[in-house]
Amino acid sequence: MKKWLTIAWLTTLMVAIGAFFWYNQFVYSLPTPVPSNYRTVNPGEKIPLSDQIRPNNNKPVFLHFFNPDCPCSRFNIDQFKALVKTYQDQLNFAVILMSAKRYKEAEIQSRFGITVPVYTDSTLASTCGVYSTPQAVLIKEDQTLYYRGNYNKSRYCTDMKTNYAKMAIEGIVKHTKLDGLDKYALKAYGCTLPNCEK
Questions:
Q1: For FRET with 186, which of 86, 130, 151, 164 sits at 20 to 30 Å CA-CA?
Q2: Where are the domains of the chain?
């Protein structure tokens, strides 16, 4: 009898763990709900940036909207750091911290191994049309929006065929029109701002 109770208990536990992981995967595969007060910001619209975020070096700016409390942001951080390493000579990179909690720049840099400036200007999210994290925003030298969207179709940023942020970077540094993106590139997936809900 004990043997069957143990088997039943372990089976129930495994089913519960499997259901939990399935539910998590399902929830994070759904698009982030669009806020009722959302204003679309289209490519080509002017995005005024402070001199602090946009150094006077005539390079495009890559803004990484990041929330350390968002699982999607944490899964994505290695891809962001890889982009910084590859393109740091061609772009100005910055992390825009989006969290209801207060974090210091040095704390985020140390905790996640980030080597670029970290800013807490939450108004930039609505200025750029961002309502979830993680999101990538690319701004041209003339301070107009070039790309706002996802890094990758895969939650773990492992699908190289849908490496949207890298495609956008390649387009902006080559001064070409951004083509070849599918619907997953521009529909937000991740944690809703500002409270990391999903």
A1: 86
A2: 61-192
Please give the biggest Cα pair distance in the chain.
Answer: 76
Fold observed for domain 61-192: Glutaredoxin (3.40.30)
**CA distance linking residue 122 with residue 99, whole number of Å:** 9
User: Coil, helix or strand for 141?
Assistant: coil
Residue 96: in which H helix or E strand, if any? strand 92-97
38 vs 164: CA distance, rounded Å: 23
Given a contact cutoff of 8 angstroms between Cβ atoms, the answer to whether 68 and 191 are in contact is: no
Closest by CA to 196, choosing from 53, 36, 27, 37, is 27
d(CA 54, CA 92): 7
pLDDT digits (tens, 9 = 90+) for 92-143: 999 999 988 889 999 999 999 999 999 988 889 999 999 999 999 999 999 9
pLDDT digits (tens, 9 = 90+) for 17-46: 655 554 455 445 567 888 888 888 999 999
Whole-number Å distance between alpha carbons of 116 and 99: 18
Token digits for 169? Answer: 């970077």
User: Vertex 84, ends 83 and 89: CA angle to 5°?
Assistant: 115
Contact criterion met (CB below 8 Å) for 136 and 157: no
Q: What SS3 class is residue 116?
A: coil
| Coil, strand or helix at 79 | helix
